[in-house]
Amino acid sequence: MPDTPTPSPRPRLGVFKLASCDGCQLTLLDCEDELLLLGEQIDIVHFPEATSPGQPHGPFDVAIIEGSVSTPEQRDEVQAIRRNSTILLTIGACATSGGIQALRNFGDHDDYRRIVYAQPEYISSLATSTPVADHVPVDFELRGCPVNKHQLLELITACLRGRTPAIKNESVCFECKRNGTVCVAVTQQMPCLGPVTHAGCGAICPAFNRGCFGCYGPKESAATAQLAEQMRANGQSNEAIKRAFRLFTAGSEAFRKESQRHE
Amino acid sequence: MADPTATPMLTLPPDGLSELFARLVQQGWRLVGPTVSNGAIIYDEIQSPDDLPTGWTDRQAPGQYTLEKRDDQRSFGYVVGPQSWKKELFLPHEVVQTSSLNNGTFHWHGANPKPTPTAFIGVRACDLAAIGIQDRVFLEGTYVDPHYQARRDATLIIAVNCTEAGALCFCDSMGTGPQARQGYDLCLTEFDDYFLLESGSDRGKAIATQLPATTAKPEQQAALTTALDNCRQQMGRTLNTDGLPELLFGNLEHPQWDVVGDACLACGNCTMVCPTCFCHSIDETPDLASGPAVRERSWDSCFSEEHSHIHGWSFQPTVKDRYRQWATHKLSSWHSQFGTSGCVGCGRCIAWCPVGIDITEQVTAIQHSPADPAPLPDFKPITWHARKDPLQAASARIEHITQETHDVVTLKLQMPDNYRDQPGQFNMLALPGIGEVPISVSGDDGGAIEHTVRNVGKVTAAITALSVGDALGVRGPYGSTWPLDQMAGRPVTLIAGGIGLAPMRGVIRHLVSQTRDPATEWVSVIYGARDQNALLFNNERKQWPTNPAVKVAITLDRASAGWRGNVGTVTTLLQRKHQPVHGIYLMCGPEVMMAAVIRQLSLDGVPPENIYLSMERNMKCATGHCGRCQYGPHFICKDGPVFSYAQVRPLFGTPGF
Amino acid sequence: MLTDEQLKKYGFFKPLTDERAAAIVALAKTINLPADTEVLREGQQADNLYLVLEGRLSLAMYVPGRAPEKSIVSTISRGELLGWSALLPGRMWQATARTLKPTRLLAIDGTKLRELCDRDHEIGYAVMKHVLTVVGQRLTESRLQLLDMFAHPDG
Fold first, then answer.
1. Under an 8 A CB cutoff, do A178 and B267 touch?
2. Would B470 disulfide with which of A71, B308, B466, B530, CB 3.0-4.6 Å?
């Protein structure tokens, strides 16, 4: 159980970064006007992307983590954040599935280190890149690479107001159809992960005549095997199918298993 | 609507179309019609016949749709694309309500839609039927959706008969096409060198008189019959609808549901492209500043897990459950709900399914090796019209709060004078910006009502944390009532579990207030709860047996210090004596408890008609529009929550419903 | 002793002829107990089958460190059977039974009842059928309790 926060006139928000590109924190900075409104209602006490470096000082009513657990230090850090937070939110593909760096989960960790770094002995990293929820209980996982600004605001607002965030666990297809976007899979037999991918991005790629890349990771009940079979029927090679499922959310269970089926 | 056969058929030269469009624009109509976009024919704003898909046709197969050039220059030489007219009438996203809090009172600002008058150009017969079906959902129930109504009233329909059918078309099987029969203002039939023009309304007739149209020659009229006959011959799909609703309802456990459940992606495309699917969600949207709270409605689908989700679990957890819900709703239970099939045979769900699942194949497979059909309840026309925005709530002030248990409170709310409810009904309780939940009325007291609320989620957490004097949104009452008229002269047994005592308190109070013969009209309350701390209405409950005809027995799942009463379940108390078959039995509690009670009562020979139960499912609107609380042919919100067991027996206890 | 007419009110005797009911009653004696009396104890040799003529008893199982009243798993009231273990040879009591209020029991000698059932299968079948109903009901009850159906949805 998290510690009870000290009584504060305004809720305290901490933003933390693990292994990531900072893009999700940037999404929060991008909120601009809304961020000012937010600032009137909460105290942002830790936000590395927006402030000078400093030690986080808990406790936090709401903690937001960007990034995956990729080093031994990060493994300890998530424990400390959890202990110091009432509500723990993880945002982005890294924090919720291990991120693009989870590609190393499929290979040999030492090989990667030797190939990438001149002096691998200086590199202290874990053999796998994993989502925060693999290490500590998480109250809500916000998907995306990067996360959607409106969803992020909705999540924070919902936490502050005490309501269930209006963030659907439906497929990307719902968004395509509501937007009136013509299906690229049906009209062009284009490989598209939309039917098995969690909604939230607003179905951007199909609107620009591209199949969904699955940035938001698998939706609940993701029928990846059935979709892969259809991709194969549409002429995709095993290698292409493997690569389609092995992108920003390659570390998610459903996509990992599907990509491994096509190795 | 006028009978189209009664109006003279006219002939319009090909360039008459420009004249028609120009007239419509001149009269202030926004034109929406077919146009080529991103490899498909979609419905979008158009200005002139130049925007039409002239010379194009669509080739369709399961999971496939491509455009091809035609040999001729027909403008309506295709069947249907991914979009239907529902995107114009029942919008994919729409703000349906805003609210504000002034001086401690909530104010709701509902619909004041002022849609641009819009002419739909090129409405196919199947889509015309689909509009008629959505009219039944949104306009012809007890509650009328003001947003849909405003747009529907501002719509002019120019239908186009189909003279060619697509590979996935089966409107002929569904009796909806290929000829547009009613519901249009004007109807065109395209031939190589002319259009036939029929008017179906006075408005249409008036427009027709302004066009360079001449009376059609007999051979031209005959050509229509031939063209429609040809089209019927070309239907790429067929569906045998003979006895189909009952057949599917009797085949809920058919192995084909497993087959299709294994193939389906639960991506929701079929429901999104379906021109009749009406299920939607209503969500509170971000409101960082303390401005008005906004409620938005958006297309949802029975293929989403959230659709049937209710505090902590989903009633349709598997993909098979969701496909079966969709297909049986569309082809079977729709008849009970709206007096029509929900399928118009447009074939969109087949084309736009990414894995090409064909609903006609599923039906054929079941028809090939069916179990016996099962009867469905008849469609019941509505008995009254509610004349207000269905989402409009009243702001009620909390007069008194009783803390019943650590997570249950009873709120006493002062209601407007004209508010009346009957025991068993429920209200939607709203906190703008947080959400809305259905809560049964647990008592009436003059101008005040009581609601007993358990903290089981975000909205109920906020409601149970309110203080005396706070405002709360209330709309209702909704739903069916306990059968008060059946309780005279016979014993009544009420079996409640947990919070299930709350919806029964009204009827218990009613019975306690009566003079009843303890020998023949006794009232037995059997109440099960988790433990002593979870017991509701402690003071009032002790008063009930002051009526000599009333007995109250309590049993707990877990004993605690000082408890000298029963430990065990309500079924144990029930089986201690033979239950009279002519008695009336009311129950409310967890479904697993109600199922065990029903089995116990059946053992004693109590007929299903004498057993009543109160059901619960996901609800967003409570007015029969959002589609979430469907229970086979029933809507829990309007046909329930109180059902006789005879009504729900075919589904009760069936996983996935 | 009870009259035939009184006995017929109890489901246990209903399916039996008067003679056969009397044969069982001949093996039994009526016991009157005040509240808070232990009737049988978990782990001891099962001896008598009891029919509750009046009153209520608790069934509890020993959980080290837990107050006995919090270890009550079920209660047994008028008309119900207590101690079905006595119908099987060599069986121990599965729980401890205590009276919750003044209680009257019909105690039937288990060994003799078994012998009677062996001799007269009509009686044996009727008794076993009744006991199966009782055990089935208790099983349903235990399952429903196990489900913890009134628990908070979050668990």
1. no
2. B466
pLDDT digits (tens, 9 = 90+) for B412-469: 999 888 889 999 999 999 998 889 999 999 998 878 999 999 999 889 999 999 999 9
Give the SS3 label for residue A129. coil
Q: Pick from A150, A220, A223: which is nearest to B265 by CB?
A: A223
CA gap B49, B34 in Å, rounded: 10
User: In this structure, what CATH number is given to the domain that contains residue A75?
Assistant: 3.40.50.700
Residues A151 and A31 in one domain: yes
- pLDDT of B122 above 80: yes
Query: Is there a single domain that holds both residue A37 and residue A65?
Result: yes
CB contact under 8 A, C145 and B312: no
Q: Is residue A227 part of a domain?
A: yes
Are A194 and A253 within one domain? yes
Count up the domains in chain A and report the number.
2
B80 has pLDDT over 90: yes
Choice among B370-379, B466-475, C12-21, C104-113 with the minimum mean pLDDT: C12-21
Pairing type for strands C38-40 and C72-77 reads unpaired
Residue type, B292: P
The side-by-side arrangement of strands in the sheet containing A140-142 is A43-46, A12-17, A60-66, A85-91, A140-142
Measured in angstroms, the CA of C23 and the nearest CA of chain B are apart by 25
Is residue A3, in this structure, part of any structural domain at all? no
- Nearest chain A residue to B462 by CA: give it: A162
Are A182 and B39 within 8 A, CB to CB?
yes
pLDDT given for residue B1 in this prediction: 42
Query: Is this prediction's ipTM beyond 0.90?
Result: yes
Asked whether at least 3 C-beta pairs link C and B within 8 Å, the reply is yes
| Residues contacting B465, CB < 8 A, separation 6+ | none
**Three-state SS annotation for B235-295:** CCCCCCCCCHHHHHHCCCCCCHHHHHHHHCCCCCHHHHHCCCCCCEEEEECCCCCCCCEEE
> How far apart are the C-alpha atoms of B334 and B330, rounded to whole Å?
6
What does the pLDDT read at residue A1? 42
Quick one: which of A132, A14, A163 has its CA closest to B434?
Answer: A163
pLDDT number for residue C116: 96
Average pLDDT over residues B114-142: 97
pLDDT value of position A2: 47
Q: Work out the burial of residue A106: count CB atoms within 10 Å of its CB; fewer than 13 is exposed, 13-18 middle, 19 or more buried.
A: middle
User: Average pLDDT of each block of 10 consecutive residues along chain A (263 residues)?
Assistant: 54 93 91 83 79 68 96 94 95 97 92 86 91 97 95 90 88 97 96 97 96 96 96 95 96 97 95
Q: What domains does chain C contain, in order, with CATH numbers?
A: 4-145 (2.60.120.10)
pLDDT score of A50: 66
Alpha helices in C8-153 (DSSP H): 18-25, 110-119, 121-147
Identify whether B641 is preceded by a cis peptide bond (ω within 30 of 0): yes
Rounded to the nearest 10 degrees, how much is the dihedral formed by the CA atoms of B544, B545, B547, B550?
100
The one-letter amino acid code at B10 reads L
Statement: residue B103 has pLDDT above 90: no
DSSP B283-328: EE----SSS-EEEEEEE--TTSGGGGEETTEES--SHHHHHHHHHH
Q: Clarify whether residues A46 and A106 are in a common domain.
A: yes
Mean pLDDT for all residues in chain B: 94
Task: Report CA-CA distances (Å) from C25 to C9, C40, C49, C112, C116.
Answer: 14, 21, 12, 11, 11
Contacts of C78 in chain B (CB under 8 A): 576
pLDDT for position C153: 74
- Going by C-alpha positions, the residue among A259, A244, A254 that lies closest to residue A106 is A259
Q: How far apart are the first and last CA of chain C?
A: 51
For the four alpha carbons of B123, B129, B135 and B137, in that order, the dihedral sign comes to negative
